[in-house]
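During the no-cost extension, the postdoctoral fellow (Dr. R.K.) reprocessed legacy sequence entries with the updated structure-token encoder. One reprocessed record is reproduced below for audit purposes.
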Amino acid sequence: MPLSHAQIWTALDALAAREGLSPSGLARRAGLDATAFNLSKRFGPGQPGRPRWPSTESLNRVLAVTGASLGEFATLAGEAPVPNVLPLLGLAEAGETGFFDDAGLPTGEGWEQTELPTAGPRLFSLRISGDSMTPLYRPGDRVIVDRDQTEVRKGDRVVVRTTTGETVAKEIATLSARSVTLASVNPAYEDRVLARRDIDWMARILWVSQ
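Re-encoded structure tokens follow.
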């Protein structure tokens, strides 16, 4: 019976964990680009994105450097998946270059990880810094963002990434075709108005870990 897309990636993640590596670390050990096995590379752009499969050459390289047989790989694919981990980055760092790819998804090695019972290819987490959203979100809290959740409305709590690379967590106060007004929970901070053309992406916050 052929292995599914999910099973192939599950096996790669499990093999990386068995070797004490992240998926990026496994890719580097196999002589591949460090981003080859990133979550953002597993689906194409769009909603939903088209599944992307690792190449046969990539799989052969992984098996060679880990010493795993094809049978062992198939066994890993059929076992219960390893705990889902999401990339985690502080909001202050999120504005820097090198942490997101062209699709606005996390990439590179600057990310830590946080566990979630169910993870998807366009989910990632950010650590709150600053007090503009207290007491709702406090410094150090981790929010889970789904890049597929782009349909937002007034009152939604969102993470917004601007075209200049700034990434902020706010609440939508008003929304129009041309601009978005972002509000802070902390009354010490004034509302902020952003033109739509200055927003790279905006996605709803699904969950917070305090």
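The longest helix spans residues 5-18. Confidence is low (pLDDT under 50) at residues 80-87, 92-121. The remaining legacy entries will be reprocessed before the final report is submitted.
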